[in-house]
Amino acid sequence: MIVIMKVNASQAAIDRVQFEIEKLGYIPRPAPGESRTLIGVIGPKPLRGKQHLQALPEVSDVLDISTPYKLASREWQPQDTIVKVGNTSIGGNKVSVIAGPCSIESYEQTKIVGEAVKSAGGHILRGGAFKPRTSPYSFQGLGEEGLKILKQVGLEVNLPTVTEVIDTEVLEMTAEYTDMLQIGTRNMQNYTLLKEAARTGKPILLKRGMSATVKETILAAEYILNEGNEQVTLCERGIRTFVDHTRNTLDVSAIPAFQRLSHLPVIVDPSHAAGKRHKVLPLALAGVAAGAHGIMIEVHPNPEEALSDGPQQLVPADFKDLVDRTRMVAEAVGKRLD
Amino acid sequence: MIVIMKVNASQAAIDRVQFEIEKLGYIPRPAPGESRTLIGVIGPKPLRGKQHLQALPEVSDVLDISTPYKLASREWQPQDTIVKVGNTSIGGNKVSVIAGPCSIESYEQTKIVGEAVKSAGGHILRGGAFKPRTSPYSFQGLGEEGLKILKQVGLEVNLPTVTEVIDTEVLEMTAEYTDMLQIGTRNMQNYTLLKEAARTGKPILLKRGMSATVKETILAAEYILNEGNEQVTLCERGIRTFVDHTRNTLDVSAIPAFQRLSHLPVIVDPSHAAGKRHKVLPLALAGVAAGAHGIMIEVHPNPEEALSDGPQQLVPADFKDLVDRTRMVAEAVGKRLD
Amino acid sequence: MIVIMKVNASQAAIDRVQFEIEKLGYIPRPAPGESRTLIGVIGPKPLRGKQHLQALPEVSDVLDISTPYKLASREWQPQDTIVKVGNTSIGGNKVSVIAGPCSIESYEQTKIVGEAVKSAGGHILRGGAFKPRTSPYSFQGLGEEGLKILKQVGLEVNLPTVTEVIDTEVLEMTAEYTDMLQIGTRNMQNYTLLKEAARTGKPILLKRGMSATVKETILAAEYILNEGNEQVTLCERGIRTFVDHTRNTLDVSAIPAFQRLSHLPVIVDPSHAAGKRHKVLPLALAGVAAGAHGIMIEVHPNPEEALSDGPQQLVPADFKDLVDRTRMVAEAVGKRLD
Amino acid sequence: MIVIMKVNASQAAIDRVQFEIEKLGYIPRPAPGESRTLIGVIGPKPLRGKQHLQALPEVSDVLDISTPYKLASREWQPQDTIVKVGNTSIGGNKVSVIAGPCSIESYEQTKIVGEAVKSAGGHILRGGAFKPRTSPYSFQGLGEEGLKILKQVGLEVNLPTVTEVIDTEVLEMTAEYTDMLQIGTRNMQNYTLLKEAARTGKPILLKRGMSATVKETILAAEYILNEGNEQVTLCERGIRTFVDHTRNTLDVSAIPAFQRLSHLPVIVDPSHAAGKRHKVLPLALAGVAAGAHGIMIEVHPNPEEALSDGPQQLVPADFKDLVDRTRMVAEAVGKRLD
Prior knowledge:
4 copies of one chain form a homotetramer. Helices cover 34% and strands 18% of the residues of chain A. By secondary structure, the first copy, chain A, is of the alpha/beta class. Chain A has 2 domains: 62 residues, Alpha-Beta Plaits (2-Layer Sandwich); 250 residues, TIM Barrel. In chain A, strands 7-8-9-10-11-12-13-14 form an 8-stranded parallel β-barrel, surrounded by 6 helices. The longest helix of chain A is centred in the last third of the chain and has 17 residues. Chains in contact: A-B, A-C, A-D, B-C, B-D, C-D.
């Protein structure tokens, strides 16, 4: 439920309604607006007491919300959220470019890529230090050493950084070294990790699960927002279908779907969806044409020697070309990439 | 197999190799090129005799092709096919706009839409006269009366026309009234219809089946090409997935996949994939950004009164806006919509 | 809508209500029962006039039916349909075994299999004469020669026969030679074929489309029933999913779903779902345990030499073993296979 | 790679080969058999050195294994694993019944269900104390209080217990109270949880991810086996498909697929796949007919008042009926449920 206070209700009135909500066994979450305050009513118990709240003199209306999420919904916040990441931001009228190697393999590799990302016009440097791998025998990442390299290169090329956090044990360490935390597709419904990552206060890049619906993805974001962290960016990265010509099927229609239901920015990751280099460019352009707030691209100086996901990583020159083309499509749809 | 003749082989040499192919029990399909002729080797029997053909003096090489299609493949024809439809064409550097009502309901409705399509810059007028409907109790189309209306309006607004042909019984009639024949998603593997539609000589718009792979779709096109009709346009219209926020999931990555494997032009149908009006625009733009040679859009003067698929049809004003935005994206990716 | 007449309403009363239904622009379809008559109200127009019909004195009630199908629904006919095929039947408490080669390749091959099917306890002999193949270059079947062989072997081993009919052009010929007509998975929504096959009066084996929902499959059956042919058997044969360890995913839960919604018998085809021999047995047993009225199995004397679908065909000895095990499971769930 | 030692190789020989493996940069994992020892060769580096190992005098053969898992494979261990859980076991010729409420709601509720499970012939009592819920506002379980209730009821009705462990923070506590740990479908690729749960030494019930392939599921099990814990039971619980008549599609064919590739026992969870009560019975029978080593069923005294998943829970009387019917199908396929 959402309680809509009367216009210009006093703080005392707001406090009183919050007290009533608590008496009913729920948690009130006030959202002060320019002219009036909304109060989200949250609680593990089946929601009751709508009539009681409606009868309070300070209350204008009480809405049952049909969507199971609240804080992430457009009803709750009509204007777009802008997520701040270091010296840049994601959302609004801007197309952000997040790029870097799949795995951080060495300082040299990361430095080459970091400079390439910066000079091509990228905004955030990505790189994996802990890799969740389907096989226990695959390369699992450099760990803390990788985090240190990422941070150092980020400082040297003046780009904020994002890296995947794979469990609560390395969460604190990961949060110390990077500007934004990525929750991977396999962890989208790892609720403990969502909640604890939220509590670090860092902006979160939340990847859609491989078989998650749009609604389930927004509900995962709701776990983060419900901890008081509103800096969430959603990421469409392809879904599991019967299709065999790509690794996953990039669900471009999810971009307008997310944007209609939620105020959170949405980016696309064409690299993981495509699985192959030559499809990364068309999917990146398609994502931006459909309204994405950004793209995330894997770049490697020597993809054929990469320790993970070689076939989908771009060399720096192709990446530069991709950013230039993306900029033109961004402008064609009334956005800017600068 | 494909037999590659020596450069400037004489007609007698080509004839002789064809004769040898026939002796082996296959059908030869010569494809004369500027400097050399290729001969496709087609046959129901397991392919044998490669060594025999390779030993012929006029033969440069014999390729086993790993793909199960030949005539539709890039190996067979490296340059893009341009499909001619009345006074326009599909393919190459151009973005074509095919638009019209889902069902032809009356002359008045079709005329309003036809004029809107023409004035917005559309190239081909579409409209359904025979509707394949999931329920036997749904509106099944106006039949021949619908075909007459479509033809008349096409002539009046000076646009070639395309309509779906649903079975071999109405094929001849449908071919008489329209410039291009559409094979619908449910009929993509109706091989009898594919072959007989091919024999009319009309250009064919072949929609991908709802659960067909890219390879299966190209194989369906191969049935048409194998009848000697090379005027085939493929159409990505969305696939069946677990996703519930759209009717079907537009598989944008199929566009570069088709173009890599085949020389046939590929358009997208965002209307059927989206199922809802507000997703038609972003999906159309995404399709063109990913490299589609055209878009197919449903337009209706009063979508809420449409006899079929109302929720996904655009009003003329929104359609005009969509064409204008599509033009900008087309130019951003180096194509033109004029 | 369904009009429920009063108990023992006279024929004159029934006629009068039918006349009123026709005046409203619909088609009445009376279904006389033991004590009262139901009248299905069918029509292409949006259904109106419920109140008018409800006001007629002879009418007990008028039901809006939420399901888009009528004749195939359990509401319309609560008791199970028994489909008669030659000297046997499908449905009720019995588990039917339909078996034979994927393609009829020769009299000798078919005779060996026919005798194996008969001696193992099978009820219907199957075999393909016209094969719908994904590639135009694959073996397309023996055609009429195949139909003749199937009929002859059926007579010699005293089993009725079923074969796939692939288009309306060979429909009459196919219907002359066989006892039951199969509509294949690719043709489930080939509505012209459904209607014309229905009109032959032959029992129809309708395979679920590879990506058809349960509801869409029942609607395809409705096309047949709406032509006055009630002898329809549904067949679950596997659906398209992301899964890669089988060709298609046998949707066992569709069996109780069909049976809850419809009175038509349902069999399973584990051969096509499995794609591989060693999965045919467990899937056949699973289907019968879940309530299927029968199984359809591919049998070949030398699967490795089969002209189509070799890897999924059983040799006669393994087929005999499968029937014996299926019989035990049938009895464990209160049915019989004899 | 797997190094196969010569028959009756001495411990010194085995040690020497292990030393060579380590020199190559890999980890040796010896598996002593009755007559000869196999040594798994594990390592993050691309595998090299096969020829070197093959040349050692004590080595009989070195196998490249095409499957990316080793310890979970049939090649590694041909005979079925039997998983011990308290006073019972899962695997082999036996069909195990695991049952209990979705969520533990109170001692009374759990006691009623525990007695029903015991008297119907169930073997293991299940119940959720920590519930991973799609929405942060849904009931999240009783936590430790729930674990205590489950343990107490298990002791009172003399059944071992299993409960889901949702994160590493509650792992130790959960392991203290229960006999078997369940890893849920959303956590199948939560590798940190897999590894730490493995280290408790408790038997693990690993549910297949909603969109995981059979191979990915076995790889998740490999993470557990690689920690030295071989007591893993796999669970097929339905996959995400386009199908809308059930919550998930029970992939019955996964049962023989798992059993062919791996030695680990496989059970089915028809309750979560079905989502609705009336489909639980046919899916349970189908699973057992296809070869499952057990079933997991949700039972609740008053499903309509359940705090989670009410529509799919059975009342005790229906559960008793289900066990009786399952027993008959188990016997029909040569197994026993006792």
